[in-house]
UniProtKB/TrEMBL annotation:
It is a multi-pass membrane protein. PANTHER family: ABC TRANSPORTER PERMEASE PROTEIN YPHD-RELATED-RELATED, BRANCHED-CHAIN AMINO ACID TRANSPORT SYSTEM, PERMEASE PROTEIN. It comes from Geobacillus subterraneus. Residues 314-334 are annotated as: Disordered. This is ABC transporter permease. Keywords: Cell membrane, Membrane, Transmembrane, Transmembrane helix. The keyword Nucleotide-binding does not apply. It is found in: Cell membrane.
Length: 334
C-alpha cells in the first residue's frame, strides 16, 4: 500500500504542472480551455519522437513546452481574431490536435522503455551520488524504503520551480493585467490594454505547462499514446477544485500551493479508491468524475449550512433583543 501511495505522490507532482496550466486558463483568465486534452498529448508525442530519434531528453522536453505554447496561441487566435466562442475554440483545437499528434508520432503509440529519458538520467545521477542510502537510513524508523527517491525529489523541485515562476509572473504588470482581464475584460479594454494579446499569451503559457507535463508523464510512464490526454481537463479541474476546497485560495501564492496539493490529494484518493474490491482500473474516469462532483458539491453544502446557522443565530439574537425590550417596557409601565 505504501508503495502505491508513494507512486501516487510522484505522479501527483508531475500532474501538478499540468494543473497549474489549467489554473492559469480557468481561474486567472476565466477561459474554459478544452485544448488541454490535445496539448497534453502534443507534449508527450513531441518529446517521444525526439527521444526515439536520439535527441537529448531535456531538449525534447523543452521542445514539447514550445509545441504546447503554439497550440495555446492557436486557440487564443481562434477566439480573439476568429471571434469564436471560448468553449468552441478549445474544442476545435482539441479535435485538430488529435490528427496533428498522430502525424507527429506516425502511429498511435511510441514506447520509451528502452530509451534514455529525463527520468532515467535523473535517477542514475541520484543513485550515483548515494542519496537513496542517506534517505533510507534517515527514515529507517518508518520501515519504508522505496526503490529510489530520485523521481519524487526531482518532480517536487520541478513543481516548486514552475509554481515560483507562475507566482512571479502573476505579480508583474503583465500578470496583473491578465488577472484583471479574467475578472473584467471590458474594463481592462477601456484602459486601452491589449486584452486579445493577454488572452493569447495566457493560453499559450497555460498549454505550454500542460504539454511540458505531458512530456514528463510520457517519460515517467515509458510511452506516449494518442489516447493519454482523454479526460485530462477533468483531472486538472479536479486538482484545482480539490486544492481550493482543502487549502483555500486567498492569494496567488496560496492558490498555486493549493493546486499542487490538490493534484497530490487527487492522486492519493484515486489510488485508495482503486483498492476497493469492486472497482477496477477501467473505472478511473468514473472515479475522477465522482471526485470532481464531490469537490464541487460538498463546499457548496458546507457554505449553505454555515449560512443557515448564521441566519438562525441572527434570528435568535433578534428574538432575545425583542424579549429584553418587551420586559423593560413592562417594567416601566409597572
Amino acid at each position: 500500500m505504501w508503495t502505491a501511495m508513494f507512486s501516487s505522490v510522484e505522479a501527483g507532482l508531475i500532474y501538478a504542472v499540468m494543473a497549474l496550466g489549467v489554473y492559469l486558463s480557468f481561474r486567472v483568465l476565466d477561459f474554459p480551455d478544452l485544448t488541454v486534452d490535445g496539448s497534453f498529448v502534443t507534449g508527450a508525442s513531441v518529446a517521444a519522437v525526439m527521444i526515439v530519434n536520439g535527441a537529448n531528453p531535456f531538449a525534447a522536453s523543452a521542445a514539447a513546452l514550445l509545441a504546447g505554447f503554439a497550440a495555446g496561441v492557436a486557440t487564443g487566435l481562434l477566439h480573439t481574431k476568429g471571434k469564436i466562442n471560448p468553449l468552441l475554440s478549445g474544442i476545435l483545437m482539441m479535435i485538430a490536435l488529435y490528427s496533428i499528434n498522430l502525424r507527429i508520432m506516425g502511429k498511435s503509440n511510441i514506447p520509451l522503455l528502452q530509451e534514455e529519458t529525463v527520468i532515467k538520467q535523473i535517477t542514475a545521477a541520484w543513485q550515483q551520488a548515494g542519496w537513496d542510502d542517506v534517505l533510507n537510513r534517515a527514515l529507517s524508523f518508518t520501515g519504508f524504503a522505496p526503490r529510489t527517491w530520485a523521481v519524487l525529489a526531482a518532480m517536487a523541485a520541478v513543481a516548486v520551480v514552475v509554481k515560483g515562476m507562475v507566482d512571479w509572473l502573476l505579480k508583474t504588470e503583465l500578470g496583473i493585467a491578465m488577472r484583471a482581464t479574467g475578472d473584467n475584460q471590458p474594463m481592462v479594454a477601456s484602459f486601452s490594454a491589449n486584452t486579445d494579446g493577454l488572452i493569447i499569451f495566457g493560453l499559450g503559457l497555460s498549454n505550454a505547462l500542460v504539454a511540458f507535463s505531458g512530456a514528463l508523464v510520457a517519460q515517467y510512464g515509458g510511452f506516449s499514446d494518442i489516447g493519454m490526454g482523454i479526460g485530462m481537463i477533468v483531472i486538472g479541474l479536479a486538482s484545482v477544485i480539490i486544492g481550493e476546497a482543502l487549502f483555500g485560495a486567498h492569494s496567488v501564492v496560496r492558490a498555486t500551493w493549493a493546486v499542487i496539493g490538490g493534484a497530490i490529494v487527487y492522486r492519493l484518493i484515486l489510488a485508495l479508491a482503486l483498492r476497493v474490491e469492486f472497482l477496477e482500473t477501467s473505472d478511473v474516469k468514473l472515479i475522477t468524475s465522482l471526485i470532481v462532483m464531490a469537490a464541487l458539491i460538498v463546499p457548496n453544502l458546507w457554505a449553505a449550512q454555515k449560512e443557515k446557522r448564521r441566519k438562525r443565530r441572527k434570528a435568535e439574537q433578534l428574538e432575545r433583543g425583542e424579549a429584553v425590550a418587551g420586559a423593560e417596557t413592562n417594567y416601566k409601565s409597572v
